[in-house]
TrEMBL record:
One of its GO terms (biological process) is L-glutamate catabolic process. It comes from Candidatus Magasanikbacteria bacterium RIFOXYB1_FULL_40_15. Substrate binds at K68, K92, S361. It comes from the Bacteria. This is Glutamate dehydrogenase. The record marks D144 as: Important for catalysis. Belongs to the Glu/Leu/Phe/Val dehydrogenases family. The active site is at K104. InterPro entries: Aminoacid_DH-like_N_sf (IPR046346), Glu/Leu/Phe/Val/Trp_DH (IPR006095), Glu/Leu/Phe/Val/Trp_DH_C (IPR006096), Glu/Leu/Phe/Val/Trp_DH_dimer (IPR006097), Glu/Leu/Phe/Val_DH_AS (IPR033524), Glu_DH (IPR014362), NAD(P)-bd_dom_sf (IPR036291), NAD_bind_Glu_DH (IPR033922). Keywords: NAD, Nucleotide-binding, Oxidoreductase. Residues 181-420 form the Glutamate/phenylalanine/leucine/valine/L-tryptophan dehydrogenase C-terminal domain.
Length: 423
């Protein structure tokens, strides 16, 4: 079993390269990031002592446009993870055909242990170390795990102080009113919804008859549940970190969210979560489930929207969904992927189905560099066009080569990037 994420990424590249007989020189170029920097960031802690944090920025490839990719604050950050994530960003941008390349940053830190002031000094310190490498015409960071719009605003401010001129497009995911874009907060989910709609058409299903289970009820999962419910899909199960709820008659995600936020209770919803295990009846239409069971329900579409590596060689045999739409990054291990294909389960890959997020970021950058502000309706119209076209392209490529959708997405992306590389 391969655990190194960069090795996994390179295996995916090799698969795609084999299918399209990729020029061997270009293949060689794509096996390494253009640049990876490691920086030490001294931060004056509230206690008065100085603590030094380690950070990275990997700029993988800019054949299609400026480097683009989030910054992650997490104790598990490491150089191989950052390199892999920067490669996947290059693939994701190319799948949706936006004029951006791939990058990723990270700092080894547990931000939950830092005060707000310490996080601000760390964020400004990180920018002090990488500012010459970034800019709206070079490399455009964004939020990722445990980084927020507020952190993006501090980073923009620090960059502009160092550069000596305003450059709002240096970073995306900023708060609205500070250069942020309308629609960005739910563009990931909305992009995933367009993928679900296209998939349902291909499968000749009807929204009303299509049952859906969603693992994860955060930014991505809760927006996805609400939009799908409004469009008539039948959400039969949702879960968060505390557990989940199943109702064969359907769940109203707005109610689930309200009850989660209010700590109230109703029927089979929960107290302080999306489920109320104590109130559940085992014989009714509605019951409590755990985060393993939600992955194994007999539904039409399973949407992992929480963590990576949840569909694995260990549980893939018990997955009964007819299709999977990956909203989380990396929810399926490479071993499980092979078995999904053998079982005939269609998996719409993360690099396509959650690409609404980076597409929303691209729109933010475009508005910043053009000094424009688009309405939510304008943003959504552009997002819909790009996501539906990307889905169609990947589907056609899958049919053309008789491959799974993940490999097809990599083929589409690698072909686009390769055309722009001179060797
Ligand atoms: P989030 O922090 O807002 O929400 C995460 C959700 O997962 C929460 O509801 C949490 O309770 C739940 N969760 C945590 N542990 C769980 C467990 N063991 N089992 C089930 N649920 C659990 O995060 P998010 O922004 O919604 O991101 C979710 C996934 O989507 C991540 O993989 C992220 O990389 C990916 N993604 C998000 C965006 C975006 O714009 N938000 C873009 C692209 C990809």
């Amino acid at each position: 079993m391969i655990n190194n994420p960069f090795q996994n990424a390179m295996k995916q590249l090799d698969n795609a390269a084999g299918i399209i007989n990729l020029d061997k020189d270009i293949h060689e170029v794509l096996k390494s990031p253009d640049r990876v920097v490691t920086v030490s960031i001294p931060v004056r802690m509230d206690s008065g002592e100085v603590k030094v944090f380690q950070g990275f920025r990997s700029q993988y490839n800019n054949a299609l446009g400026v480097y683009k990719g989030g910054i992650r604050y997490h104790p598990g950050v490491n150089i191989d993870e950052v390199k892999a994530l920067s490669f996947w960003m290059a693939i994701k941008c190319a799948v949706v055909n936006i004029a951006m390349g791939g990058a990723k940053g990270g700092v080894i830190v547990n931000p939950k242990e830092l005060s707000e002031g310490e996080i601000e000094r760390l964020s400004r310190g990180y920018v002090q170390k990488i500012w010459r490498l970034i800019g709206s015409d070079k490399d455009v960071p964004a939020p990722d795990v445990y980084t927020t719009p507020q952190i993006m605003a501090w980073m923009r401010d620090e960059y502009e102080k160092l550069a000596g001129y305003p450059d709002p497009g240096v970073i995306t995911g900023k708060p609205l009113g500070q250069g942020g874009s309308e629609g960005r907060s739910f563009s990931t989910a909305q992009g995933g919804v367009y993928c679900v709609e296209e998939l349902v058409k291909k499968m000749n299903w009807k929204p009303e008859g299509t049952t859906i289970a969603i693992q994860g009820f955060g930014n991505a999962g809760s927006h996805m549940a609400k939009i799908l419910h409004k469009s008539g899909y039948k959400i039969v199960a949702v879960s968060d970190s505390k557990g989940g709820v199943y109702n064969k008659d359907g769940i109203d995600p707005e109610k689930a969210e309200k009850l989660k936020n209010d700590g109230g209770r109703l029927g089979c919803y929960c107290v302080g979560s999306v489920c109320n295990v104590e109130e559940m009846k085992t014989d009714g239409p509605c019951r409590a489930i755990d985060n393993h069971e939600i992955l194994e329900l007999d539904v039409d579409i399973l949407i992992p929207a929480a963590l990576e590596n949840v569909i694995t060689a260990e549980n893939v045999d018990r997955v009964k969904a007819k299709a999977i739409v990956e909203l989380a990054n990396g929810p399926t291990t490479p071993e499980a992927d092979v078995i999904l294909k053998e079982k005939g389960i269609v998996a719409v890959p993360d690099v396509l189905s959650n690409a609404g997020g980076v597409t929303g970021s691209y729109f933010e950058w475009e508005q910043n560099v053009k000094n424009e502000h688009w309405t939510e309706a304008e943003v959504l119209e552009k997002l819909e066009k790009m996501m539906r076209e990307a889905f169609d392209n990947v589907w056609e490529t899958k049919e053309k080569y008789g491959i799974d959708m993940r490999t097809a997405a990599f083929v589409v992306a690698v072909e686009r990037i390769a055309k722009n590389i001179k060797t």
